[in-house]
Amino acid sequence: MTQPSPSLTTSLDGLTPEQLHGFFVDWPNPPRPDTFLRLLRGSYRVVLAVHDGQVIGFVQAVSDGVLTAYIPLLEVVPAWQGRGVGRALMTRIQEELRHLYAVDLGCDDHLVPYYEGLGMRRGTLMFTRNYERQDGSPTG
């Protein structure tokens, strides 16, 4: 018997940190669920995949709301990977952002074909990282 597909939502109403476990698996310094919820609330757009009241995938966008947006995070919990959840999340966030001129994201080289399959084009990304701040905890 196959599991039913998760539902997609753009609403954060009623979302609690308890519904946000299982993400950031390989991060050495991951955000806690309460910090994760703050991250989602501070986003321009968010799409969540929910199954049995638990968030099993998400994608977020930050934006000026006029011309540009950046998609910093797309994640699906390991047990749900390879089932089309990420593709559904990306398709929905692209719909949410279609009114903008530019939507960018950065990814590892092995993920380029995945995003090309969603209609995105390869580009160049420059970045800096402060891994001491990776968990998103408030600065003192």
Tell me how many strands there are: 5
Radius of gyration: 15 Å
Q: Give the terminus-to-terminus CA distance.
A: 51 Å
Shape: globular
Classify the fold: give the CATH topology.
Aminopeptidase
> How many alpha or pi helices?
3
Low-confidence stretches: none
Organism: Deinococcus soli
GO molecular function, one term: N-acetyltransferase activity
Keywords: Acyltransferase, Transferase
Pfam family, one: Acetyltransf_1
Main attributes of the structure:
single chain; 140 residues; alpha+beta; Aminopeptidase; 3 helices; 5 strands
Structure description:
- This protein has 140 residues and is of the alpha+beta class.
- It has one domain (7-133): Aminopeptidase (3-Layer(aba) Sandwich), CATH 3.40.630.
- Helix content is 19%, strand content 23%.
- The protein has 3 helices and 5 strands, in the order E-H-E-E-E-H-E-H.
- The chain has a 5-stranded mixed beta sheet with strand order 1-2-3-4-5, covered by helices on one side.
- The chain is globular and about 35 Å long.
